[in-house]
């Protein structure tokens, strides 16, 4: 018998496990609305034209495969901070931003979590309830204590704004508050600009450290600037913050693992020291990041004609999701005009948070072959418009 025989089976990942179950279903009606990955209307994965063009440029210039520095590709780090804060932002000019290229959103969050564990020991991280499930794994594995703040109000299918503020006020001073930059996952509910103002007030009063998770910049509204509004607003108010970025969705670079962890700080000396410690953390975790996707992103962001084309493609992807969202809404109303379905079109980004309970989700899957996460979230990115009517009748049936 193996000396590791005592090791128990780990539970399947609640999001990626959905795809595994989907693969075992042979029905023609099956729909995989679990993972948040963009698909075309024919359910094909989509490689952006700008990505293909950037790769062509890379082949032509015969780039080598030497190690990157620990902090990643310089051109990428410059581009990514600019994309986040806007070109020519004073924090960038004053070298107050420490940026480390890391392994997409997840790896960047993990480096940030390790940094918190090392340099802000004893601080609690506050996560929205609900949040993207992996946030909990990331902070737990980094040995950082986390709690939740109220975020979602079931009754209004909207933001639990008062509850959120109360919880952030009640949190010990100097806590870390994880905020979704835009298109909150899984709810699709974002604070309004006015509400962001009140959140920033509390963060400032309590000396909390905001930790933005920006996984959908440009993908939510189709505009990179609009989707970066919240972290830019905090930067405008000179609130020090951490920001994790991902290029999985907006550049469709899921498997290339392109992202960054940024620290927007009060002065350049602190930024330099913080970067050095992040390099120390990355060195022990994975040594240095992969180069291919970082080159793609830096070429797309750095060349005006490709940048313009990227914006168009992102607008196209965001537009398809908005269209299918509207189609689903129309079908739901047709199916059951007595229920208020307006939350579907109010929600932002890739997902719709349906309000289906775990047993109702079970019905969606067992009876209707619709695969989705247990929390009632569906990814509209995986819904072709010709399946919207089927999905609507499955949802209406499951609510019965
Ligand atoms: N943060 C949120 C809220 C997400 O939804 C995701 C992806 O689903 C990520 C971070 C990180 O994804 P990745 O590691 O692919 O960049």
TrEMBL record:
Cofactor: pyridoxal 5'-phosphate
Enzyme Commission number: 2.6.1.1
Entry keyword Zinc: no
UniProt-listed GO biological process terms: amino acid metabolic process
Source taxon at top rank: Eukaryota
Pfam families recorded: Aminotran_1_2
Alphabetically ordered keywords of this record: Aminotransferase, Pyridoxal phosphate, Transferase
Family annotation (PROSITE patterns): AA_TRANSFER_CLASS_1 (PS00105)
InterPro entries according to UniProt: Aminotransferase_I/II_large, Asp_trans, NHTrfase_class1_PyrdxlP-BS, PyrdxlP-dep_Trfase, PyrdxlP-dep_Trfase_major, PyrdxlP-dep_Trfase_small
Catalytic activities: L-aspartate + 2-oxoglutarate = oxaloacetate + L-glutamate
GO molecular function annotation: L-aspartate:2-oxoglutarate aminotransferase activity; pyridoxal phosphate binding
Aminotransferase class I/classII large domain location: 30-395
Family affiliation: Belongs to the class-I pyridoxal-phosphate-dependent aminotransferase family.
More details: In eukaryotes there are cytoplasmic, mitochondrial and chloroplastic isozymes.
Subunit (UniProt): Homodimer.
Name this polypeptide is given: Aspartate aminotransferase
